[in-house]
Amino acid sequence: MSKIPASVLAFEKKLVPSDGLMYGTTWEDRHSQSEPLKLQEKSVRGTISNRLKKSEEGKIDAKIESANLQRVDSCALTPAQDTLKLNFTLKVLSGVENPSACNHEGFNQTYADAVTGYIAEYGFKELAQRYAINLANSRFFWRNRVGSENIEVQITVLNNDINKHWTFNSLDFDIKSFENHSSDIEELASLIAKTLSGEQEFLLLEINAFAQVGKSQDVYPSEELVLDKNNSKEKKSKILYDVNGVAAMHSQKIGNAIRTIDTWYPEFESHQRPISIDPYGAVTNLGRAFRQPKQKKDFFSLFDRFSQGEKLENSEEEHFVMAVLVRGGVFGEKQ
Q1: Is the dihedral of CA 22, 23, 25, 31 positive or negative?
Q2: Scanning 88, 114, 182, 276, which has the fewest C-beta atoms within 10 Å of its C-beta?
Q3: Distance (Å, rounded) from C-alpha 16 to C-alpha 140?
Q4: Across the strands, what pairs with 24?
Q5: Is residue 192 exposed (0-12), middle (13-18) or buried (19+ Cβ within 10 Å)?
Q6: Phi/psi of residue 288, each to 5°?
Q7: Domain that holds residue 239
Q8: What string of H, E and C letters represents the secondary structure of 197-246?
């Protein structure tokens, strides 16, 4: 199958999370009161603990005498608080069958036919169930999830014409599996699937999540990327994210957690963990791309065939292609 004829091709994302704001509370009063968490700046005197070059090994004492001074941001609960609250919204949009930009009419038609066929056969039910489970299991807490005694997620539909609310105990879910079929998960997934399939224009959810991490414990907002690599001692070496003075998590980080649903990549049997939906199965903290183009399991190899009407090997490849389109991106063929 030849490559797609469109040189300009882009898709808008269909899962749109907001930034997540962080608050401190107690487990007993988590539904009634909370206080915004502020970032604190610390100046710390560390030791030299990095691996030394061969030429420096005999100078270790001199190195230790030179203190490793750092200015860093931190965030923690107060001694009266033992629970972290995270609040954000998630908008689900329809229209995945329509590229936001495409300069080839013939491709537009074959692509629309392929997506219509996918919706008729699967109705986005598999993807929607996985997104719903990732909301219920609080994967979006990331490091804040580890070592929590209790975790609760409350999800409320904000559409005026839909009155729905669910409460989940996140510790009931296996974070490596998508095999939960509770009635609440099915109900939430059904609304997500109907929206992605175009039966309704949008779905707006509000998520309030609570993690009992312990009194005075550190919590972990998103960390800002320090682009200025100047090693001046006057600059902070760790900058955390806040929104109008309230500690927060990037919308991109929350979105990455929600779309961590790919269990269809070639090495899943040995790796045994879902990865985030990405055209090449990239996992940056492992320095790996699990979907290599030479194996023809990457998004572009599959999309070129799928979008022009060719049947893929199995439903898993179709789910992956559609999940990347829900994620959005620029996928045109460079001339």
Answers
A1: negative
A2: 182
A3: 14
A4: 35, 84
A5: buried
A6: -130, 150
A7: 9-45+68-330
A8: CCCCCEEEEEEEEEEECCCCCECCCCECCCCCCCCCCCCCCECECEECCE
Q: For the chain, what is the domain count? A: 1
C-alpha span between 132 and 153 (Å, rounded): 11
Evaluate whether 180 touches 133 at the Cβ level (below 8 Å). yes
- Specify if 318 maps to a domain: yes
Residue with tokens 């490091």: 143
Residue 153 contacts residue 168 (beta carbons within 8 Å): yes
Q: pLDDT per residue over 133-185, tens digit each?
A: 999 999 999 999 999 999 999 999 999 999 999 999 999 999 988 987 799 99
Instruction: Give residue 335's pLDDT band: very low, low, confident or very high (50, 70, 90).
Output: very low
CB atoms within 10 A of CB 140: 25
With beta carbons less than 8 A apart as the criterion, state whether 90 and 153 touch.
Answer: no
- What is the helix, strand, coil percentage profile of the chain, to 5? 30, 25, 45
Q: What is the pTM of this model?
A: 0.92
Average pLDDT, the chain: 90
Q: CB burial class (10 A; 0-12, 13-18, 19+) of residue 5?
A: middle
Q: Report which residue type is found at 94.
A: S
Position 232 pLDDT exceeds 70: no
What confidence score (pLDDT) does residue 63 get?
61
In a domain, 122, yes or no: yes
CA distances from 307 to 27, 224, 291 (A): 49, 37, 19
CA distance 16 to 19: 10
Report whether pLDDT(237) > 90.
Answer: no
Q: What per-residue string of b and e applies to 107-119 under the rule 16 or more CB within 10 Å gives b?
A: bbebbeebbeebb
37 with 222: CB under 8 angstroms?
A: no
Please state the rounded mean pLDDT for residues 223-231.
73
Separation of first and last alpha carbons in the chain? 18
CA distances from 58 to 46, 47, 52, 64 (A): 20, 17, 10, 12
Q: Which amino acid is at 100?
A: S
58 falls within a domain: no
Residue 63 lies in a domain: no
- CB of 316 within 8 A of CB of 302? no
